[in-house]
Structure formats: structure tokens, C-alpha cells
Amino acid sequence: MRKIYPLLLLIPFLSCENDLDILNPDTQLLPQDLSKNFKTENFVGQFKALSDSVNNLIFPQASFVLVNIDKAEQNDLSIKIQSSCPQTPEIVLKATAKSDSTFEINPQTINSINIAGEGKISKQSLSITIKNSEKVLLDYTAFKTVNLVNPQLLKIENLSRGFGVENDSLTILGTGFSEIRKNNVVTFDGQRAEVISSKTNSLTVKIPKRKTKIAKVVVSVDSCQTTETSFEYLTDTWRLVPSELPRSGRWYATSFSIGNKGYICMGIDQERNRLKDLWEFDSETQKWTQKADYVAASRNAAVSFVIDGMAYLGTGHNGVEGSSDFWKYDPKKDEWSQIADLPSGKREHAVGFALNGKGYVGTGKGKNSWYKDLWEYDPKTNKWTQKSNVPGPDRAFAVVYTYNGKAYLGGGHDGETDKGWLGDWYEYDPATDKFTPKANFRVRDVYGFQINNRGYLLYEDAQKLAVYDFIHDKWINLNKPFDKLTLHGVTFSMDSHAYFGTGFNGEYKTKFWEYIP
Asked: Where are the extended beta strands (E) located within 106-183?
């Protein structure tokens, strides 16, 4: 009868240094009987040291694979030892049979590994001995300390978010991290980060001081390094635009952007006159140019969206009541043309956005009512279609962003007292016409703008700034943007920058500020 010899492939977390210590693994019975179906099955296992007193282990995590060998006459076998350190190549060793039941291996990094098996393999007939010179590092005769799990190499898989500011917390997701905090070294472009908490699959760190805008993040465990990943520091810089709006200051204006041009239209001036002028801002020359006036009634608190280089403006307060008429602006011709009115509800302080070639308008307030409805405009048919209502209470002064074919809408006021400012936010999918709740963020007096697929929120009369991470559904507070509060200004963004201006802070403003993330 031919004997069956096992080949043990060790794929350890080899230390990149030569310091060795005794391994003290946890004790747990093997969950499977190796005597069953061993001839056709491969088994993956992992040794794991859990003692806090163990330092500089050669096997902080030693993963292995048992492979069936059924040729008795085969005396020379190849055995792979793969270090978890990316810079260390795979080591292929030759094992020579000393007898029918024992193979001996002698790599440089481990003075000896003895793999012994006799006849049919069972938990009692296989032993492993790993030695450093005459010092036994690991000695098992019955696999009582083996857990059958997938091998875990040291690597970064993802960050809880890809951007942030100094001193904020960040979670690094991956595999092979140490549960002992001090064994994990995390650097941002060489700047060491404080490790707040650690698990084998996640590390929470305090973001260190900024060295470069895009930092290289690396995790090292017992001198073994992960592959790198990128993290972006938000510089959070505001600067005053050198040229002011040439016309008088205003509040409750309407804004939009097309290409590298920003536009501001309408509003109320310091003499309480409602306006209809349109101004174009060139981000390259930083200059303002007056364009054709809005052809409908003067108004404030209107809404806008942009589709295929055309701007659509409508609703707003005309001095008597809210409006429902809509107009299209062609920047190349500098001309206005009327489109179909919004079918329901004269309103002001609504929200507008565009997705997939369609425009959307919803929420807002009328003379005696507030709204939560949402309407879709198709420029090809010049028709409006009612969609699902926005969840939560009726609201005005809400904010909306668009990302990856979906809209993110929330905040605003429910028409009650000052406590009526709302914190619920929703993701709207036009393909299904459904809203999905997202992370709450309740603040008052809000203005929204968007840069580089991130949503920003000025709030508390432009005294504070936060950013929303669409991917991870998180709000992050940034630094204070201004020294003076500003009421009812406007924002627009283009060329990876945003602009905020006009409004009121004791006087009607004509100044604009540029935000550089």
C-alpha cells in the first residue's frame, strides 16, 4: 500500500527583521477532522499570537496550506514560503524526505522547519516544529491551536473617506493589522499618525499635519509595509475676488454656472426693489459682464438648473406672490425664451437640479402653503411630470447636490419657528423615482455648492462650512470661512473652485469670495 505524504505550505507574516521571540498562540480545537476526505481537500489555516507581551514575532500571523501528496517514491518536494512584506519576494525551498514520514526544511530566515506525517493523516499524526537555532518558536503535535481561515496578508483595502483635514479621525480598512496599537505604524507622506484604536481589519487614526495636498498613506506592522493609498488634504482656503459685482448689492438672488462662467440674476436691492439684471463672471479673467435682462417680471428667490449648456430659471417672488413661470437662457445667443410653466404651486425658495438630461424643481413655499412635491422637466417635449414627494415635512430653503446620476436633497425650514430647521437628507434615484434616507445634518441658514463630486454646506449665515462625502455618507465640519456673517447670498461653482457673494451683513454686498478646497 502506498503511503500519503502531506506537503505543508507555509505562507507566514515573516518579519522583515531578524529579531525573534517565542510565539504564544491562542488555544482552540480544530473545527474539522483532517482524517476525513483529506486526499481531495486543501486546508487553509492561520496561527495567531494574542498575547500583548509578545513583541517582534517572526510569526505574528502564520498562514499555511495543507496539500495532499500521494506519490511515495517522491522524495524531493518544493515548498513555498511567502512573506507578507510586499518588498520581500516569494521564497521557494526544497524539502528532502529523511524517512517515509518526515520532511526537513532549512531556510535562512527560519533555522529549521520539521513537517512530520505518518500514513493516513489525522489530528494526532501530524506535527510541526519551527526552530531558531536551538530555540523552539512553535511546536504543535496535534493542531490544537489552528483556526481554519483564509490567509490574511497585510494590505490597505479602503479609507473611510478619501479626504479630510488635520486632526480629524480617519478609519483605514484592510487586513493583517495588529490588535496591539503600538505595533501599527501609520504615516501620511512620512508624517506619523496617532493610532487611536486597532483591530485586525481596521485602524482609526488622527490625521497628522499636512505636508502635501495629496498624501501617501502607508501602514507598517512589525516592519512589514502595506501598499500605499492616497489621501487628499482639504486646504479650506477662501480669498476675496478682486472685482466686485458692478451693480448694486442684493440678497435672495439666483445663480447658476455654465462651463467656466458663473451667473447671478435678480434679487432685492437695498431700496427694496426687485431686480431682473443678469451678470456673467469669467473665472479666468475674474471679470463681470452684464448680459441680457431676465425678460419676465422682476423677482427674488427664484430657482435654476442647467441642461446641455442652457439655463432654466423660474418661480420666485414677484412682489405680490410666488411665481410658476419658467424661462430658458441661451448664453451663446444671450437670449431668453419662455418654456412651459411649472404646473402646480406658485412658489419661492424651491430647489432645482438636473440629472440625465432632465430638470427637476421641488419643495418651496407659497403665499399660504409650503411644498414637498417634485416635478421633472423634459426639454425635448417641453413638459413637466410630477414625481414622488420629498419625504419628511413640507420645506423651503432646502439644498440639493447631484452625484453619479442621483440627487442628494435635504435641510431647509418647515415654516415653523426658528426650531423648524431640518436635518433630514435623502438620495433621489430618478430611475426608480425613490428617495433613500441618508446621514442627518441639522443646521440653520444654509447655502450649498458642489466641487469635485463633493457637496459643501455653508451654514449659520455663512459662519461655518461642512462637506458631504457621497461615497461614505458622512458630513465633515471644516474651518470657519468668514469673519462677518452674511445673510441670503448666492453660490456657484466651476473649475474646481466655488464662489460665494452678495447678501446682507449690515449693508447689501457686492463682494464675492472664492473657495479653494
From this structure: 112-117, 126-132, 135-140, 155-159, 163-164, 169-175
Q: How far apart are CA 38 and CA 72, in angstroms?
A: 16
In which residue are the cell numbers 447658476 written? Answer: 256
What backbone phi and psi angles, to 5 degrees, belong to 267?
Answer: 115, -175
Instruction: Judge contact between 223 and 232, C-beta under 8 A.
Output: no
Q: Return the sign of the alpha-carbon dihedral for residues 365, 368, 372, 373.
A: negative
pLDDT number for residue 222: 67
Cβ atoms of 351 and 403 within 8 Å: the answer is no
If DSSP states are collapsed to H, E and C, what string results for 262-294? EEEEEEECCCCCEEEEEEEEECCCCEEEEECCC
Return the closest-CA partner of residue 450 out of 310, 306, 308: 306
HSE, side-chain direction, 13 A CA sphere, residue 14: 22
User: Up-side HSE of residue 228: CA atoms within 13 Å toward CB?
Assistant: 11
b/e burial code for range 290-302 (CB count within 10 A of at least 16 → b): ebeebebebbbbb
Amino acid at 173: L
Residues of the chain with pLDDT under 50: 1-151
pTM for this model (two decimals): 0.69
Note whether 413 and 420 are within 8 A (CB): yes
CB of 315 closer than 8 Å to CB of 302: yes
User: Among all chains, which residue has been given the C-alpha cell 524517512?
Assistant: 99
DSSP state of 405: T
CB 54 within 8 A of CB 149: no
For 192-247, write each residue's pLDDT tens digit.
999 999 998 999 999 999 888 899 999 988 667 776 899 988 877 888 899 999 98
To 5 degrees, how large is the angle CA 128–CA 130–CA 133? 145
Question: What's the CA angle centered on 20, arms 59 and 134, to 5 degrees?
Answer: 105
- 335-339 sheet: strands from edge to edge: 303-307, 310-314, 326-330, 335-339
